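Worked example (supplementary).
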Amino acid sequence: MATLLETETGHRTGAVEQDADIVARVRGGDRDAYRLLVERYQDMLYRHALSLLGDADAAADVTQATLVAAYAKLGELREAGSFGGWVYRMCGNRCRDQLKSVRRRDIPLDAAPDALLRSADAADGPMEQRALRVALQAALLELNEEHRAAFLLKHVEERSYDEMSELLGASVSALKMRVHRAREALRSALEGVL
Amino acid sequence: MHPELQRYLDGELARDALSPEAAAELAAWERLQLAAGHARRETAPDWLADAVMRDIAEADSHIPAMEAAAAVDAVQTGTRSARPPARRGVRALVEWLVTPRPMQVRPLAPLGAALALMLLVLLQGGDGSGPVARAPDGEPVIYVQFALTAEGAQSVAVAGDFNDWSVEAGTLRDPDGSGVWRGLIAVQPGVHKYMFVVDGEEWVTDPTADRFVDDGFGMRNALLAVSLPGEAL
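After joint prediction of all chains, the assembly is encoded as:
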């Protein structure tokens, strides 16, 4: 969503091209225009993936693959203006698929300390905090797609409900309910850790 | 969870307005928020946008314009095309199925085995519309035959995103004891990742696949692309 775009200094920009217009250009053959969408959403997608995977390299790979796949599937996007929410959910699903394959190989996430230490500021945090992050990653993946996206937008991206509504195309009241349910589910899943 | 705490976390209630009951839950949620927010300051690597655009350009340069957007994902992720011929009648389909194709077979050291072949087998749909079957939910599926030569193995399965990485759902069989394990697996059209699982615990990448993708955790998934007859991926 163009209206959600912020500059590096945090100021809203006014004269930005709407997602729908960019999508239309790309569909019309202007491949280079897709870079605008990539640059607009790559940080948000990366943080989403990092929250779920806990590994910077894996998060970058998933973000890259998601954005390439989104280009490939742009024809399936029903509302051109909903690109942001669409690609955000796609990223979450790719993370989940990736972790499913890892889990099936009996490689528990908490058995990858190197990966966790590389992520964000984990190396500076106490062990309890790291353990909580690992537990939270697992619990987030157990949420359904809508609840997970709403929770992460609220608590990682720190979006307002109005911004989330614009991005995901759902009402504010519906999004509040999703976030509330996500919190309840996480509280239940993390009862022994919190 | 206390309703006042929900309102506080939503920014609708001041902290000092929380009742003692709600405040008692606050510390745990602050720890959760801290954990959730560890990625908040992170940004994508500088190279990422260029890499995405390069992948897209590379894919576009290999395929006709009309199919470009649809096929980018397959090319980017290194997908093998297992697409059957466009619908040209039963004869063409049979010819396609029985025509020998070059195949690389090489030893698989840990197993003393060699991976064999993978054929795409299409079933005639019940409605006569084409060589596809339909899952109970009505979605079209294509039956893919997976095969692995694993002499001495007690069990072999294929697990992938098409069966939720379930070893139980992708069991292969070796009825004649030749060491060649085969099985038909229903796969919906699309690009899929998979691996073989030997004796329930050894995950083996299919070395005969044309394309692979790193899973980010030190292993590689083989990639398979399937599409309905006459349809591009």
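Two points are worth noting when inspecting this output. The longest helix of chain A spans residues 83-104. Chain A touches chain B through 71 residues (CB under 8 Å).
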